[in-house]
Amino acid sequence: MTPASRYPPDLDRWREAARIAARARELGIRLAVPGARRRDVAEAIETYVREHGAQPAFPANLSRNDEAAHYTPDADDVAELADGDLLKVDVGAHLDGAVADTADTVEVGGGRRHVHLIRAVHDALAAGIAAVRPDGRVDDVSRAIAEAIRARGLKPVVDLTGHTIDRYVLHAGKSIPNVPGMSDATFVEGEIVAIEPFATNGAGRIGNGAFGHIQRFRRPPPAGDPVLAELFARFRTLPFTARWARSPEERQALDRARRTLQAYPVFVEAAGGLVAQAEHTVLVGPSGAEVLSLAPAPDR
């Protein structure tokens, strides 16, 4: 297999999915103000993705404070963001399975209480991306991420990782740890990769919290259920939420399919520490990483 053979044949589609995801991420950050309901912010992000020609690759994750990942509001969620919340805005978009995954962290209310955590993950994201090379070691990226976070007196979260992405597959098998010594893999030119550091002032590990209203099909549903078949055709194995059910019949079908579904718990910091996250989708190019999900110019 030549390196060029790993490039997606429809690379422009992956780039466009990333542009849409980046704009939706920035919209979510702008909407994250005191008093905003998390459900309204999530639905605005997802609506933006759909209105611009893509589909959400997963429900908008709006995890705050010690929640590291995997929280999306359900249909009845009325919780409001509070001044000082440390909010992770994690967004995915796909075009016919060409997936982009990107995230950033914002302090609700625009204060500076958590600026060191946000700067740490920004530093780590930049350092990790700079270390990406075709045929280069994943461990070099992991070391760069960990050193940038530790330089600010914080801890990388050791059991959350970046990941390769394939068509309709968000986590495609190759992990990019946020600490060194955990991978002997190398990057291949043409791969699509999410670089995804997490920093905390806690223990540096996560535990499982409550159900985060996110699930996915682990396998195709049993034959003979047309409603479930339509849901599987819509989502494939990408994560989704019952909030996206279009009818009572679809909600009932999801209840019937529990053995076919994987539920995602909220990941919470093991010691209750605050967690910040930043993430870009990158292409492993001939001389390094091409960042696909950069912050775009404002919409006009």
How would you explain this protein's 3D organization?
- The N and C termini lie far apart (43 Å).
- It contains six helices and 14 strands.
- The relative contact order is 0.19.
- The mean pLDDT is 95.
- The chain has a five-stranded antiparallel β-sheet with strand order 7-6-8-13-14. Strands 1-3-4 form a three-stranded antiparallel β-sheet.
- The protein has helices at residues 11-31, 38-51, 115-130, 138-150, 226-235, 248-256; strands spanning 55-64, 67-69, 86-95, 98-107, 155-156, 161-165, 175-177, 192-195, 198-200, 206-217, 261-269, 275-277, 280-284, 289-291.
- It has 300 residues and is an alpha+beta fold.
- The chain has one domain (3-213, 267-291): Creatine Amidinohydrolase.
- Helix 1 packs antiparallel against helix 2 and helix 3 (115-130) runs antiparallel to helix 4.
